[in-house]
Amino acid sequence: MSKWLVNPLPRPDADIRLICFPYAGGNAATYTPWTKQLGENVDLIAIQAPGRAARLFETPYDEMEPLVDELLPLIVPLLDKPVIFFGHSLGSRVAFELLTRLKARGLSLPVHFIASGSAGPQEKALRKPTYHLSDDEFKAELSDLNGTPKAVLENEELMSLFLPLLRADFKIAETYRYTSDITLDCPLTILGGEDDTDIPLSRLQTWQEFFSSPADIQMLSGDHFFIDNHAHLVTDKVNGIISQVLNRLTPSMSRYG
Domain range for residue 22? Predict the structure, then answer.
């Protein structure tokens, strides 16, 4: 399997595949513990892009288009069974771009899309761009976001390793906007943090513009990083969605061979 795809507990006979996309500065480690909470009928794959974890010394992407160009041919073979896309923050928008590419090529879409902790892809970033700031200014912004442990921020050696990735991911997150028209026939669930001041309910609702079926919006305890701080709440929601999807798909599962 490609180094882009982390499959911590392969389940080749699973009924459904869950493909997860990390937030800016994150990596597959956010999702690998989920295997303990997911059923044996779920095959979890987490995306590991260059510049992080085991790929730390590879050059990270700092633009959306080449990142998705590289990912697309790796995702297509995974559509041999029902697939759910889950993305948090920037990961939601990477997953959305993949949805648009799949539709443009007339390929199968995921049977469900879960957008977590993210405004719709047409929304401008609320904060002013930070990726180009000096190291000290950039680290101050990271501290305000509350997503990087203080011990890491204060470790100059670690930060020298992580800053190129963080700048690259933040550049994508802060400059990307989807400006085309598209309607996706893919059921949509949106997860938000009750204390996420940057992504309130009004910004979560903007995803609806691109989907034909009504979005199911669910608010969870926590701030923007509820996916880490309240992981059990997220996996409970994901398990519920998987059960609903499989119940809906059971009559048509034979088409996946």
Answer: 5-123+183-256
